[in-house]
Design brief:
With 330 residues, the chain is an all-alpha fold. It is 76% helix and 1% strand. It has 2 domains: 1-73 and 305-330, no CATH class; 104-291, MetI-like (MetI-like fold, Orthogonal Bundle), CATH 1.10.3720. The protein is globular, with a radius of gyration of 24 Å.
Length: 330
């Protein structure tokens, strides 16, 4: 059997194992969520009643709790949610007063737009600057880039977001500070693009240092490898060596770091969307957690866990395909 076929079989086996492991993990996460909600100090009626909560009598609160089924044991609520889920019913959000499926359809595209644009920018910056720094290690550009990355690593996304608003929105007035469009304006490409710049840049900058330093270290290490030295002795120019030899060998560690950063990207997106009032799913995530809106919170929690695990799986598959020295044992 050829080495390529063995590798393909290893990848198929790894995918099968990971997908099988996904089922109990999602089951455990969702069950733990309902169990934790049952002992939470938050009252789900607060989100349901809103401003009417303080004026509602204790008797009416008790009646509402019974009517909404909030007094049932957590495992009954969990079983009911699972049953509805298996029948394709995601339930209704109490806090947003609309079906969960409709809410997801409205908000997920905006989150995907933000994350895809931000990560595309982060990857482009990390690869370009990281390769240059790695190929000129010890130079002025390398020292400046490394110092900037070390400093940026300690800044959480919300600090980067607030700094961007203070400088480019409040100070210079170049870009809008929040929202999807200007007040009263219709949703259009120009409006959305203008309002996307700051949140996407903030999310991208929060990920660039980790990715860039990984590329720099990998490129710097690969410069001394035998296959690079051999290519140089054969008279191949530096640009070709970098493009055809060093960069491909450096992509596997870069993809590994990218996969490992997925949970941080999710958390960063939540913070960035909240600060910039971006109408994505992150704001709904936070609101559902505060209101114990379990129909929405459970779907978002399970969906996020699934997305992170599948993204990690794709990253591992990419690493095996990029680097033949890596075996698909995970």
């Amino acid at each position: 059997m050829t080495r390529s076929r063995l590798r393909d079989r290893g990848i198929e086996a790894m995918i099968g194992r990971r997908l099988l492991a996904l089922i109990p993990v999602l089951g455990a996460v969702s069950a733990a969520l309902f169990a934790a909600a049952s002992v939470s100090p938050f009252d789900p009626l607060v989100g349901y009643l809103g401003a009417r909560y303080e004026s509602t009598s204790a008797a009416d609160k008790t009646l509402l709790t019974e009517q909404l089924g909030l007094d049932a044991p957590w495992y009954h609520l969990y079983g009911r949610w699972l049953g509805d889920l298996f029948h394709g019913d995601l339930g209704d959000s109490r806090g947003f007063a609309q079906p969960v499926s409709q809410l997801l359809a409205q908000r997920i595209p905006w989150t995907m737009l933000l994350v895809v644009v931000a990560m595309a920018v982060a990857v482009a910056l990390a690869l370009s600057a990281g390769v240059w720094a790695g190929m000129h290690r010890g130079g002025r550009v390398d020292r400046a880039v490394t110092a900037a990355c070390v400093m940026m690593q300690g800044l959480p996304p919300f600090v980067v977001s607030l700094a961007a608003i203070a400088l480019f929105a409040v100070g210079l007035g170049w870009l809008p500070p929040a929202g999807l469009t200007d007040a009263g304006a219709e949703v259009g490409v120009a409006q959305v693009a203008r309002h996307l710049v700051l949140p996407a840049a903030a999310l991208a900058l929060s990920q660039v240092p980790w990715l860039l330093l990984a590329v720099r270290e990998s490129v710097s290490g690969n410069r001394a490898e035998d296959f690079v030295v051999g290519a140089a002795t054969r008279g191949i120019d530096a640009t070709t060596i970098t493009r055809r030899h060093i960069l491909p060998a450096s992509l596997a560690p870069f993809v590994t770091i990218l996969g490992a950063r997925l949970p941080e990207v999710v958390v960063g997106a939540v913070l960035v969307e909240e600060i910039f009032s971006w109408p994505g799913i992150a704001g709904a995530f936070v609101q559902s957690a505060k209101d114990l809106d379990m129909a929405l919170l459970a779907v978002l929690t399970v969906g996020t866990t699934c997305a992170v695990m599948l993204g990690s799986l794709l990253a591992d598959v990419a690493v095996v395909l990029l680097d033949p020295r890596v075996r698909a044992d995970g």
